[in-house]
Design goal:
This protein has 198 residues and is an alpha/beta fold. 23% of the residues lie in helices and 25% in strands. It folds into 2 domains: 2-96, Cobalt-precorrin-4 Transmethylase, domain 1, CATH 3.40.1010; 99-195, Methyltransferase, Cobalt-precorrin-4 Transmethylase, Domain 2. It has 6 helices and 10 strands. The protein has a 5-stranded parallel β-sheet. It has a 5-stranded mixed β-sheet with strand order 6-7-10-8-9, with helices on one face.
């Protein structure tokens, strides 16, 4: 039986009580390196995977298997991938997404936001023009500096908030104008864009 659990933005303080109990009691835990490291205070015996396609080979239907996913597994997460591979999922436990964490730190509402994931995906940055508020998940290939430059070239103006290593001890949140260069502290991040629409 496979359960997929969201572990939040990274710091174990943001795990739900339900997920903590499941981590302690599951027969088998599968996690990516960063996620596994974040739960070591709860449990050290987990199977570490490095690529999404590795997960399937470790799932044991005869065991209570818990797959840990960063953020919320239903928000640009692992659930859709496993469904596309026809993997049977018994249950999904939600977690806090890194974007939710950042918006709380910024004290900003996000219900009318446009969402784009550039985390391991190709995204169309021209869609930022369609909304006053856009939230982007980033990766090492789609850095905040790259996004800032591309948006400026698309003639967008406004403000960018960038959160790196959210919830960790080395968290960094910065505010810049679209077009400004940004030091890329980490490939783990979220970008929030407030578009100055005419």
């Amino acid at each position: 039986m496979l359960t997929i659990a969201g572990v939040g933005p990274g710091n174990p303080r943001y795990l739900t009580i339900d997920v903590v109990e499941r981590i302690k009691n599951a027969d088998q835990i599968i996690a990516f390196g960063r996620v596994g490291t974040s739960i070591k205070s709860l449990r050290e015996d987990y199977v570490q995977v490095n690529r999404v396609d590795e997960i399937i080979s470790y799932i044991d239907d005869k065991k209570d298997c818990l797959l840990l996913a960063s953020g919320d597994p239903n928000f640009y997460g692992i659930v859709e991938y496993l469904k596309s591979k026809e993997v049977a999922i018994n249950q999904v436990l939600p977690g806090i997404s890194s974007f939710q964490y950042l918006m709380a730190r910024l004290k900003k509402s996000w219900q009318n936001a446009n969402f784009i994931s550039l985390h391991g995906r190709n995204g169309d940055l021209s869609k930022v023009k369609e909304s006053k508020l856009t939230i982007l998940l980033i990766d090492r290939n789609n850095s905040p500096s790259y996004i800032s430059s591309e948006l400026f070239n698309l003639r967008l103006r406004g403000t960018m908030y960038v959160g790196f290593n959210l919830s960790y001890d080395d968290e960094k949140i910065i505010k810049v104008n679209i077009g400004e260069e940004i030091e890329d502290y980490s490939s783990l991040g979220v970008v929030v864009i407030e578009n100055e629409m005419d």
